[in-house]
């Protein structure tokens, strides 16, 4: 977008990308809660379903924020939520968050039989929807999970053996006993093959464009295409510090859009448009623009004669750009980054999980 181009005209071809970001995230959490409500009553007695905020993706360090849903005898369901007793200093829940947990219906640690150091909840299988909502709000609002794609899950039976469950929306299944990267590609040459264009899925022109794109992104992230974080719109999500980058495949015309909602809830002003125009002119590829109250960054990649290296470059540019620009623009124009502002670490009793 040049300085002379009216912002409205430059945005006409971006209507599909500029879906309401809050609705996108809300829909993902709703899908997660519904899947959990459907799954929980079907679990055999003795099953424990562990839902954990991925610390490597959420930036919570050694803090493990988790909720365990239990299937008990007699058609009852239980749940346990971690408390400050297992959280390190700097990541502990403050008084307001503890009060919010109790307001959601959790019993304080030790009150419910068998809860030990955790918050506890007990109900019937008929209350599965209510339990799923409480668990979802705990992960999202109390523990600070920005999106269900940053939640991992695994289940074990009464014999402590892994059990298949799910899928749970965009949450990611892992193997019990493994870290958050369980299921990631173990072939150290996978990334190199993708970046050089020799990965079979990336270079197979007979495969749909979406499959080839997924192969490239999975290679970059050293994971498998089926384990990518994909939301209800089919967009692949990539965490980039305090920013979120999405990869969207368009069919007509064939196009791959690598984009990021750099800043939300920002007030559009003439100064902002001028600044975005200046920054766009300095970018090697892509552009910055503002629509409604959101600043977007976008780098398109041609889908016809698709080249893996072109998408790799776009993703690398966007992940670095979005994480840098959201801080810079927020300092100049206000607004919110995708993952919000973190609380200052180091104070006893403060929780530094990220919020929307």
TrEMBL record:
Record-annotated TY-Chap N-terminal domain positions: 27-151
Top-level taxon of origin: Bacteria
Domain TY-Chap central: 210-340
Pfam families per UniProt: TY-Chap1 (PF22551), TY-Chap3 (PF22552)
Segments passing through the bilayer: none
InterPro entries in the record: TY-Chap_M, TY-Chap_N
Protein name as annotated: YbjN domain-containing protein
């Amino acid at each position: 977008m040049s300085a002379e181009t009216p912002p409205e005209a430059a945005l006409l071809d971006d209507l599909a990308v500029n879906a309401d970001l809050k609705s996108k995230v809300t829909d993902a959490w709703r899908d997660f809660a519904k899947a959990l409500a459907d799954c929980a009553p079907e679990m055999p007695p003795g099953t424990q379903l562990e839902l954990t905020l991925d610390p490597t993706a959420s930036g919570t360090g050694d803090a493990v924020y988790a909720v365990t849903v239990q299937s008990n005898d007699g058609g009852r369901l239980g749940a346990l939520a971690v408390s400050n007793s297992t959280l390190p200093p700097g990541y502990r829940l403050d008084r307001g968050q503890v009060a919010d947990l109790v307001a959601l219906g959790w019993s304080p640690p030790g009150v419910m039989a068998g809860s030990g150091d955790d918050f506890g909840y007990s109900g019937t299988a008929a209350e599965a929807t209510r339990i799923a909502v409480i668990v979802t709000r705990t992960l999202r609002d109390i523990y600070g999970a920005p999106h269900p794609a940053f939640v991992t899950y695994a289940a074990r039976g009464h014999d402590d053996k892994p059990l298949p469950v799910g899928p749970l929306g965009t949450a990611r299944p892992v193997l019990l006993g493994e870290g958050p990267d369980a299921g990631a590609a173990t072939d150290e040459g996978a990334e190199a093959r993708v970046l050089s264009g020799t990965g079979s899925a990336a270079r197979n022109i007979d495969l749909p464009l979406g499959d080839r794109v997924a192969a490239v992104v999975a290679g970059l992230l050293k994971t498998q295409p089926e384990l990518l974080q994909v939301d209800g719109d089919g967009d692949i999500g990539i965490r980039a510090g305090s920013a979120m980058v999405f990869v969207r495949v368009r069919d007509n015309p064939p196009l791959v859009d690598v984009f990021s909602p750099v800043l939300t809830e920002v007030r559009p002003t003439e100064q902002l448009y001028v600044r975005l125009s200046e920054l766009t002119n300095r970018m090697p590829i892509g552009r910055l623009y503002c629509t409604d109250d959101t600043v977007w960054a976008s780098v398109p990649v041609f889908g016809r004669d698709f080249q893996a290296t072109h998408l790799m470059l776009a993703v690398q540019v966007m992940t670095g750009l979005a994480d840098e620009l959201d801080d810079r623009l927020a300092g100049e124009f206000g607004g919110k980054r995708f993952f919000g502002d973190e609380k200052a670490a180091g104070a006893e009793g403060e929780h530094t999980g990220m919020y929307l």
